[in-house]
Write a structure and sequence with these properties.
Layout: H1 3-6, H2 17-27, H3 35-45, H4 49-58, E1 70-75, H5 78-82, H6 85-96, E2 109-114, E3 126-128, E4 131-133, H7 138-149
Parallel strand pairs: 1-2
Antiparallel strand pairs: 1-3, 3-4
Helix pairs in contact: 2-3, 3-4
């Protein structure tokens, strides 16, 4: 990681840590925080590496392993669950041939579960990268996956 391109955009203060981690992950081609990035961040902020790892591991929006181009986070909160997200997770696992927390071999999709996306009025819902989708059905999911697979 180039210090001049990512880290220096933020003041070298401990309260910049979350912003820095988000920026690094969002700009990494595999949408994750590599060990080199975490080490550079710890050095830049004068923090123990264990502290930076602790923050990266605590928040579910951060990943310490490479992910796909499209990160699918489907809500499994009680409301979305009652509205049918559980069978939709199974449908996605079968359609993509991966489990939750895995990435397709072509590096296109990573499937994750989210506890709540705050979109209960449109349950079941999901987010792909920064785009929200609601009122999901298998047909809706097929359309989304097909469109992303063949841009």
């Amino acid at each position: 990681m180039e210090k001049d391109t990512s880290l220096v955009k933020f003041p070298p203060r401990k309260d910049s840590l979350l912003q820095i981690l988000h920026h690094i992950q969002d700009n990494h081609p595999n949408q994750y925080l590599s060990e080199d990035c975490l080490k550079a961040t710890a050095k830049y902020l004068d923090l123990p590496l264990s502290s930076v790892y602790g923050v990266a591991e605590y928040y579910s929006m951060f990943s310490l392993k490479p992910r796909g181009r499209y990160i699918i986070r489907i809500c499994t909160s009680p409301v979305c669950g009652m509205m049918g997200s559980t069978p939709l997770v199974e449908w996605l696992k079968n359609r993509l041939s991966i489990g939750v927390g895995e990435t397709t071999p072509d590096g296109l999709f990573t499937l994750e579960e989210a506890e709540c996306l705050g979109r209960c009025g449109k349950a079941p819902s999901m987010i792909i990268n920064r785009d929200f989708y609601g009122n999901l059905t298998e047909d809706v999911l097929e359309g989304i996956i097909s469109n992303l697979s063949n841009p």
